[in-house]
Amino acid sequence: MSTPTPPAPDADGPDRAHAQEPTEEERQEQLQAFNRREQDSAWRAVAYLLTGPLIYGGLGALADHWLGTSWLVGAGIVGGMALSLYLIWFRYGTH
Q1: DSSP letter at 80?
Q2: Whole-model pTM above 0.90?
Q3: Which domain holds residue 67?
Q4: Is 55 contained in some domain?
Q5: Residue 2: inside a domain
Q6: Is residue 29 part of a domain?
Q7: What CA–CA distance (Å, rounded) separates 34 from 44?
Q8: pLDDT tens for each residue of 6-45
Q9: 10 Å Cβ neighbour count for 92?
Q10: Is residue 79 part of a domain?
């Protein structure tokens, strides 16, 4: 009986990933992609900070007009800002 020989190492095996370092061009592309993602996240956070108070303040203004009160606009603005800050913290602050 003969013993089986182990298979020859594959050219696309795990050692190949460690053998090649990224080129300078690939590093620049990775850095630009990272910067775009970070910039997109920052602009989204600004959009959340603006739209929360605007939407809930607007809903408060509609409710004030409909109910004949005058305090729901302020409550809507404060509540919208609180919800916006919570959304930003939940989405970007936990990782």
Answers
A1: H
A2: no
A3: 37-95
A4: yes
A5: no
A6: no
A7: 15
A8: 665 555 555 555 558 889 899 999 989 998 888 888 899 9
A9: 13
A10: yes
